[in-house]
Amino acid sequence: MMAKLFLTALASIFLVIFSFTSLAVAQDMSELTAVSEAWLASPHADRNSESFRHWDEEGEVPVRCAACHSGPGNLDYLGADGSAVGIVDHPAVTGAPIDCVTCHNAAASTLESVEFPSGEIVVGFGSSAICAVCHQGRASGDDVNAAIGDMGDDIISVDLGFLNVHYRAAAATLMGSSVRGGYQYDGKTYVEKFAHVENLDVCADCHNPHSLEVKIDKCSTCHAGIASLTAIRTAPTDADGDGDTNEGVAGEIATMQGILDQAIRSYA
User: Fold this and answer.
1) What gap in Å lies between CA 259 and CA 241, rounded to an integer?
2) SS3 113
């Protein structure tokens, strides 16, 4: 009788353990499916986009571009493939997007510092360091000074051309004057890293790391009543001087872009 009771109790324990294990596996699979679907719908997964197919005619992504325009190229840059760290050793294949292993590997997870085009090295990005490797641009205000040299402010020169910071320089924007991503005039004071609120301070705090979408629900906690992200502003200063202190920061920037465009056309 005791043996029968023991075996019955043991069977019940195994059933409970099996039930909890099955539930955990189901939850893990559900989360994995959600993450995979979010990534598949993101620009990082679009293997047919210009970002990953621009070099199809050449048959390979050159070393100067491979770190950010090819998953294998990024692994090469990180040294995750056993190669030297911080350099791409050989061209990468085209049509290879930024996939799971690009960001989920030992080299990426232990990355502590990121060097910017200005030569400044920044630490403290945490899990977002891998984002900053690519989303920092490829030029800085230093490049503008180097191009101008000792040329006078109002000299017209046919030797000057457009310096392209390159796309999505979000990390350089976030870090402000500490990495000199934009041009800085002598004698002026510029803001360093944008100081946001706690736990909303680096890339993955505000962006879904897989879909890349902004976590708008977190914004609305403080920025209540906004119709869109472009309506957000953080200070009453009329930065563009148009008299509108209710428009979002995007509106302030758009006006100044127009002023800059006029200045460029006048110079040209």
Assistant:
1) 11
2) strand
